[in-house]
Amino acid sequence: MMLLPDWVGSDVSRETIEDLQAFVALVEKWNPKINLVSKNDLNTLWERHIWDSLQIVNLVDMSKNWMDLGSGGGFPGIVVAICAKHTTPDMKVTLVESDQRKSAFLRTAIREMSLNAVVKSERVESLPSEQAEVLSARALADLSDLLSFAELHLAEGGTCVFPKGACWKKEIENAQLKWSFSYTSHKSKTNADASILTIRDIQRV
Fold first, then answer.
1. CB atoms within 10 A of CB 151
2. Does domain 13-159 have CATH number 3.30.70.380?
3. Does the global pTM surpass 0.90?
4. Do residues 60 and 161 touch, judged by C-beta distance below 8 A?
């Protein structure tokens, strides 16, 4: 039986956990071919990637159209889509990943788990504006660059949700030289030094 972290609570259904387990099995199957996560991370997939992604889901409204930038191995994009499948099935998730092999993996995961998601195999800056109501990115770029992507793809009144490491305060300071925005930092439940930033009201200075 899967042992859930205390903070997950009872709101994650058995069906969601089963789909997450199926996704982990898919990552393990594909990883030797295309390096979705580092070899060391394979032993801690749940802690470093699944639970880390799941806490992002809990911070925003799951009824919104969601765009995940630099989706890579599907963290958090596929995890978001799995959660939506069992709670808000009408929510569309758009995953952006320029690496063709990783895009093929993401499409396989979407097809095998019947997720309401699409993959766009292009660079973020080359895509037409998505007007997403939620925008996420995990380990893609520094905050200032992420806000330039948000300027292009985030709908008015939308929310960005960006996990950041120990230097998140410095990234905020640097970003404020170019951008005006409101933010809330949420202490990470999987990494004591990290934070997840929810950001709104983005404007160039």
1. 13
2. no
3. yes
4. yes
